[in-house]
Design goal:
The complex is a heterodimer of chains A (97) and B (455).
Chain A: E1 8-9, E2 14-18, E3 21-25, H1 31-37, E4 44-45, E5 51-52, E6 65-70, E7 73-78, E8 89-91
Parallel strand pairs in A: 2-8
Antiparallel strand pairs in A: 2-3, 4-5, 6-7, 6-8
Chain B: E1 2-7, H1 11-22, E2 27-30, E3 49-50, H2 60-71, E4 76-78, E5 81-89, E6 92-99, E7 103-112, E8 116-118, E9 131-133, H3 134-142, E10 152-155, H4 160-170, E11 175-180, H5 184-198, H6 202-217, E12 222-224, E13 227-232, E14 239-244, E15 247-252, E16 255-258, E17 262-264, H7 267-271, E18 276-278, E19 285-287, E20 300-302, H8 312-329, H9 338-359, E21 373-375, E22 380-381, H10 382-391, H11 398-405, H12 418-429
Helix pairs in contact in B: 1-2, 1-8, 3-4, 4-6, 5-9, 8-9
Classes of the chains: A mainly beta (97), B alpha/beta (455).
């Protein structure tokens, strides 16, 4: 685990779904941080199908563009600027359920 | 219609807001982050409690300013919001916002204090997940209280890496190595011309020395004069290759933090047509302004890294100057400290010049190969860009290359590749990068859902 524990108080974890796998995240965390903390670096695929991960973590590069299930549709958002929420479902490549 | 819109909630924007609010002007501050602070004081989520957060001595004035900003109920704070567009309409401005406070915002005056970002540097294997900017690793640490991966390798020419290394040590992270391409001798020679003047800003110099000593005591391998070659791994970073003292080495790493300098965020000034110039030595475009922080567009002001990367203390001083100027220009009761703030800012310049000279990647750029991707959004390689340039006239500007091979056409709008393309064109022509016309910057400055802009 790469979350710093000493001196840090976080709210109780919630569960979010990434590519069908369930990971734990704490309310307030960004999606990018939750993915990195879970040891899963993939955020999107490039044109050749190779995985891409977090690069700038400040909304500038868009390398962390993930697919998020919102209101019955898949929308693309920058994971580094998106807070986690209960029952959040994301996909790192297009065409996933 | 509001009096003042401030784009960016970092030290510059906050210092300006103090002045405009004190002058009785309605002030709205917009930032992509949920809480003010900027990247230097990127705050933990409001739901977290972090003991001793950023309590170093150098951060104290910044923290004081942040506490004042957050306590000021007159400020209209709009976090989690991107500014996608800026236009001048008659004598006022229209901002197109996206995110939590999406919509349009009309303002009589606008301050762009949008900060800077880590310069993306193309080298073999850099798109592998786990290879990050030093800023990304640092903000994960500061704000999210997450270590980006272990073991971690820090590499690049910018001394920020030393600060980051001590912060990673504090977090108990396993630092595999710090690889800096300059030797101690080269650093000393670069710093020498500025040392006498930099004595007026002893804080950062002392801090850098203390960081070095601490890293040595902790046994962190510091390799000066090491040249990073690239990154390898199957689907994610597994190792960093470099040469050191004439030999090639491979070191295992799950994460890498790269820092060769910073580029000003220049999308919005360029979108509205404000005068910019090539920033020296690191590159990118800094917005031109007068001593009172007025840009070339009437009613548009700039402060902080937007005017050239100079650090948080300079940003605070420039923000104060900009805030007083905006209050004056609005005919409001402006503060009287402008000359003091200008003198304070001027005293910082020798240290800023020193840091720029020391960090300058000019002679120590990592080498890209023909297969290395220059444009990470559209997956355009160095070879494709070179082939396109070879087909065009040497006088073809960045936009001509973009239109032929799609470099810079992706989601980042060229923020990752444009500086590299301009350097290549300048090198091919044998001219200064300032003589190469960059991409035409267009709306939107940030990716936004189409339904947010369709009524």
């Amino acid at each position: 685990m790469s979350r710093i524990v000493d001196g840090v108080t976080r709210p109780a974890p919630i569960t979010i779904e990434i590519d069908g796998a369930m990971i734990q995240a704490h309310p307030g965390e960004t999606l990018a941080a939750a993915i990195v903390a879970a040891g899963a670096y993939r955020m999107r695929d490039d044109r050749s199908g190779a995985p891409r991960g977090l690069l700038c973590n400040m909304g500038t590069c868009s390398e962390c563009f993930v697919w998020i299930a919102m209101d019955g549709a898949w929308r693309r958002r920058r994971a580094c600027l998106t807070p986690v929420s209960e029952r959040l479902r994301i996909a790192t490549h297009e065409g996933q359920p | 219609m509001i009096d003042i819109a401030i784009i960016g909630g970092g030290p510059a924007g906050q210092a300006a807001a103090q002045q405009t609010l004190a002058a009785g002007l309605s002030t709205t501050m917009i930032d992509e982050q949920a809480r003010p602070g900027g990247q230097i004081l990127r705050q933990p989520p409001a739901t977290f409690a972090v003991k001793g957060w950023m309590n170093g001595r150098l951060y104290r004035p910044l923290r004081r300013l942040l506490a004042q900003t957050e306590a000021d109920t007159r400020l209209d704070w709009r976090g989690e919001t991107s500014v996608a567009g800026i236009e001048r309409i008659d004598t006022h401005f229209r901002l197109t916002l996206s995110g939590a406070h999406g919509g349009t915002l009309l303002a009589r005056r606008v301050l762009i204090a949008a900060g800077c970002y880590d310069m993306p540097v193309a080298m073999p294997g850099w798109p592998l997940p786990g290879v990050m900017s030093a800023g990304a690793v640092q903000t994960l640490l500061k704000s999210q209280q997450v270590v980006a991966g272990q073991p971690i390798v820090l590499l690049g020419s910018h001394p920020l890496l030393l600060v980051l290394a001590t912060q990673l040590l504090d977090a108990g992270a396993d630092i595999a190595a710090v690889l800096m391409p300059q030797t101690y001798g080269q650093i000393a020679r670069a710093a020498l011309p500025y040392l006498a003047g930099a004595i007026f800003s002893p804080g950062p110099l002392i801090a850098a020395g203390a960081a070095m000593a601490r890293l040595r005591r902790a046994g962190v391998p510091m390799m000066m004069g090491a040249r990073p070659l690239g990154f390898t791994g199957d689907g994610r970073l597994e190792a960093v290759d470099y040469t050191w003292r004439g030999q090639t080495h491979r070191i295992a790493a799950q994460a890498a933090a790269v820092s060769y300098g910073f580029l000003p965020q220049s999308d919005l000034p360029r979108q509205i047509g404000a005068a910019v110039r090539w920033a020296r030595p690191a590159g990118g475009w800094e917005t031109v302004c007068d001593g009172a922080m007025r840009s070339s567009i009437p009613g548009l002001y700039v402060a902080g890294e937007t005017t050239g990367v100079a650090g948080a203390d300079a940003a605070m001083a420039e923000g104060e100057i900009a805030g007083i100027t905006m209050a004056r220009d609005a005919g409001a009761a402006a503060g009287s400290g402008i000359a003091r703030a200008q003198a304070r800012r001027a005293r910082m310049q020798p240290f800023i010049d020193l840091l720029r000279a020391v960090a300058d990647p000019g002679d120590v750029w990592p080498q890209a190969t023909p297969e290395t991707l220059l444009c990470r959004c559209e997956d355009i390689s160095v070879a494709q860009v070179e082939a396109t340039m070879a087909r065009l006239s040497p006088m073809a500007d960045a936009s001509a290359v973009k239109h032929r091979c799609r470099i810079g056409m992706g989601l980042c709008q060229g923020r990752s590749c444009e500086h590299a393309l301009v350097r290549r064109i300048a090198a091919a022509r044998g001219c200064d990068p300032d003589a190469v016309a960059p991409f035409r910057v267009r709306f939107p400055a940030r990716p936004l859902p189409v339904d947010e802009i369709i009524d």
